[in-house]
Specification:
Layout (H helix, E strand, L loop, with lengths): L1 E5 L9 H13 L14 H32 L6 E7 L6 E10 L4 E20 L2 E22 L6 E7 L5 E7 L1 H4 L5 H14 L11 E11 L13 E7 L2 E4 L10 E10 L6 E8 L6 E9 H7 L1 E7 L7 E12 L5 H8 L13 E9 L16 E2 L2 E4 L2 E4 L3 E2 L5 E10 L7 E3 L1
Antiparallel strand pairs: 1-15, 1-16, 2-4, 3-4, 4-5, 5-6, 5-7, 8-11, 8-15, 9-10, 9-12, 12-13, 14-15, 16-21, 17-20, 18-19, 18-22
Helix pairs in contact: 2-4
């Protein structure tokens, strides 16, 4: 359990010592690599092609054990949702560019691979035993980051290999028979979005812990685009994504200069290249339209400690978003809890969310003595998941086949308002 504490304070002019320290820090920062420094390495494609059959096996497990339970839990009418045929074909992703960075202080090597996949696949989904829809082609583009860290003087010269997408990849799915499955509003977009979120936030927890806490204030917007033809207005709200977390503000009806004044708190790891994404949307009955988006680099926030700025929205004619982000320091000293609770009680704008004071980390290792239900012929193997809740926050582990002693070895994190009155429950 860690206590959250604000680690910034306003100052007028930096001292000479701070300036010297800043210069030293900048000298230690790894070289920022631009797109021009990407190198074309065609021989790497041979390695990817030979690894593709094994990667597809992992992708099949990813869909069955991650996406399938997620869809079942999100939609009450899809509790029997099932992936049937899963075949990603023989065409491996194309590695178009690669760049390598090193950080001697952290004893790590970073490889960024620009990948592009445009291939025919066969992924059929349905309810119970009935196939209702499928995906016949996939288009995926993004930058895959591979981290070798920490480097050691013994074979294989690194203790861990971490793979993740530092930025959300672009994913397009071409569906077949989707009409049968889309009687439930929003299923198409939600399914595709959930897959992208899972891919974007995929990372190894072997080395990197969520040890940085950011408090994100979505304050207001101005000069938004009017999407409603008749009223010349929009119904805007903001979606905040980062660190595997998605948050939404309330909807402000018929307003091009809305004020939300809402706060989100997100835990981040030390994985490089992470971003906080803000997407402004216009609320509609069938599909929410984009009013623009913007991003902030997490390392930039951690360095500055506090940011308060207007950001121009991308991909729209006009619109700016006013956000404020502050870094929270984590303490393991319980004596500081009372001070943090008192700071969180200070006067704040009306309708503001209650602030967190503690970050709770829990690891779900394994279970013993679970009843094993043998599936009948043509039935699915039973899956076991663990549901952990703290007050209104509910998190679930991935699904594992229930052998009586399933293992998860998953780490779950919770932000707690007041630990003196909240309890954790496991189901």
């Amino acid at each position: 359990m860690w206590i959250l504490y604000r680690c910034w304070k306003p100052s007028t002019e930096p001292s000479a010592i701070k300036c010297q320290d800043k210069a030293k820090e900048q000298a230690k920062v790894p070289h920022k690599v631009t797109d021009r420094e990407f190198e074309r390495l065609r021989y790497l494609q041979v390695l990817v092609n030979n690894s593709w059959p094994y990667i597809t096996k992992y992708l099949e497990k990813f869909l069955r054990w991650r996406i399938q339970p997620l869809i079942r839990s999100r939609f009450k009418y899809l509790t029997n949702f099932h992936f049937f045929d899963i075949d990603f074909g023989n065409k491996a992703p194309q590695v178009t560019h690669m760049r390598v960075q090193s950080d001697p202080e952290k004893k790590q090597i970073l490889l960024d691979l620009k990948i592009s996949l445009n291939a025919a696949v066969m992924v059929n989904v349905g309810i119970s035993k009935t196939i209702m829809a499928g995906v016949k082609s996939v288009k995926l583009e993004g930058t895959l980051r591979i981290i070798l860290a920490p480097l050691i003087p013994d074979v294989p010269f690194t203790e861990a290999v971490n793979i993740y997408f530092p930025r959300r990849p672009v994913l397009h799915l071409q569906w077949t028979g989707l009409t049968n499955l889309l009687n439930i509003p929003g299923l198409h977009t939600m399914t595709e979005r959930m897959i992208v979120d899972q891919i974007a936030n995929f990372m190894s927890d072997i080395l990197f812990y969520l040890q940085n806490a950011l408090r994100i204030h979505v304050l207001e917007a101005r000069n938004l685009v009017a999407n409603d033809f008749f009223s010349k207005k929009s119904d805007p709200f903001v979606v905040v994504r980062g660190g595997g977390t998605v948050g939404k503000t309330r909807v402000i009806s018929k307003n091009l200069n809305p004020q939300w004044n809402q706060t989100f708190e997100i835990l981040f790891s030390d994985l490089p290249g992470q971003e906080i994404e803000f997407e402004v949307l216009d609320k509609n009955v069938q599909r929410d339209d984009s009013l623009g988006s913007c991003k902030i680099a997490v390392p930039h926030v951690l360095k500055k400690k506090f940011i308060d700025k207007w950001i121009r929205l991308d991909n729209v004619k006009s619109g700016e978003l006013h956000i404020k982000v502050e870094t929270l320091k984590l303490f393991s000293d319980r004596d500081k809890l009372e001070k943090v609770l008192n700071l969180n009680k200070r006067p704040r704008p009306p309708k503001s969310e209650e602030l967190s004071s503690v970050a709770l980390y829990t690891v779900i290792q394994k279970a013993r003595g679970l009843p094993v239900i043998r599936p009948k012929k043509c039935k699915l193997n039973p899956l076991a998941t663990v549901e952990v809740s703290v007050t209104d926050t509910v998190k679930r582990t991935g699904a594992q086949i229930n052998s009586g002693e399933p293992e998860w070895k998953e780490r779950l994190q919770f932000l707690i308002k007041d630990p003196r009155g909240e309890r954790m429950q496991k189901n």
